[in-house]
UniProtKB/TrEMBL annotation:
The lineage of its organism: Bacteria, Bacillati, Actinomycetota, Actinomycetes, Kitasatosporales. GO terms for molecular function: kinase activity; protein-N(PI)-phosphohistidine-sugar phosphotransferase activity; protein-phosphocysteine-N-acetylmuramate phosphotransferase system transporter activity. It is a multi-pass membrane protein. This is PTS alpha-glucoside transporter subunit IIA. The keyword Transmembrane helix applies. Residues 475-495 are annotated as: Disordered. It comes from the Bacteria. GO terms for biological process: phosphoenolpyruvate-dependent sugar phosphotransferase system.
Amino acid sequence: MSTDKNRATAAAILPLVGGPDNISSIAHCMTRLRIALHDRSLVDDEALRALPAVLGVVEDETYQIVLGPGTVARVTPEFEALVEEGRAAGHLPRTPVTAGELAAQGAALKEAQRARNSTPVKLFLRRIANIFVPLIPALIGCGIIAGLNGVLLNTGWLPTVVPALAAIASGFMSLIAVFVGYNTAKEFGGTPILGGAVAAIIVFPGVTKIDAFGQHLSPGQGGVLGALAAAFLAVHVERLCRRWVPESVDALVTPTLTVLVSGLVTIFGLMFLAGEVATAIGSAATWLLSAGGAFAGLVLGGLFLPLVMLGLHQALIPIHTTLIEQTGHTALLPILAMAGAGQVGAALAVYCRVPHNRSLRTTIKSALPAGFLGVGEPLIYGVSLPLGRPFVTACVGGAAGGAFIGLFNQLGAPFGATAIGPSGWALFPLLDGPSGLGPNLAIYAGGLLTGYLAGFVATYFFGFTRQMLTDLDTDQAPTPAAAPPAATEPSLAEI
């Protein structure tokens, strides 16, 4: 039955994005179906947003339909199958009535979007995110298993199962550098397996016999940062080889030189340097939260939503991964997740302030469940950002929740998340820290409640001008969700 439902969702989406022949590629991440389109003008945005399964749409380099965690992984294969069936049957996309005008309009939309989101910094950060996002499902799965194993270990239950769960939870993390190297080479145009091969040097136990910079190397030294740098170097070495090595010996010489040159540089340079950087990141994060406490949490929680809007939050992904690799959890994620709590509080205040605007209240009611689970797009692009001031007051809520958690870090109760990806209530199973499960859950729940309350109060009293209330608190007021602005990677669930 669920398969029929997922196929029905895919079938409803397909004609609204222009049909099978309007699609050049299909992919999905944690929450979104990502589609590359030939002609953007063939997409019916309003009809897509009206579909019950669609939580929102976001336009970036690809057209992104927000379906939520779990759902997107089930709908995407059905969507791919329908596209293939449609192409095999010779199905054509809908033809515009005035092809010239609509084509020009679509080209203008694409160009405007590309100009906004194609700055060198954003493009680079997006590519870094593309390396780590495919790893998130494994990080989540292994993180939850690690949490379960910790509970069994502390309670003394099922002692024979604990070693097995420890192996399952730790196996992926012990080799994460290899996956990062593989994805790095793939993202930057090299041969993925060569990137993985060079990165594998970092986790090879035999590096303990090698002396570099006056000290013996240790397996894993440099971690994901070293793997990223090593694979990036391998891509460039491979390109040089492809340019100068004769085709007759390319299959032998190019892989050998790529692995050899990149491997030597990794062993006698990158592992040490990346290890120093990784240690500095861990020390800086620990110092920031232990010394800065509430103030650090306030700044981090308050600025995260603007960072998301600018696409700069992607720079945090390698930092999160490095912290998880070093300490088993990232202490930054629970604080940053408070931005979502502020967003929920702001949306609840909007709901209360516009009792006569049934369309807006319906949008909020449908988006709140996803917001509580950390999927922020529907509330951001359907409510707060189009209204303006509630977006700012949502940041106030995030700052308050971040300050609450930061304060407890300073008081000696640090904790973090064993994986990146979820936020909101979905982060509870991933919490870990030296204080124990109970205090970790209580502090995080307190932060969420603080974020909800502060976001609500700030929005209720300061989120509207009199003119805004006059315009919005009526049945005839337009629904902000009808035309959310384009965005760059906004999801709180994809940090």
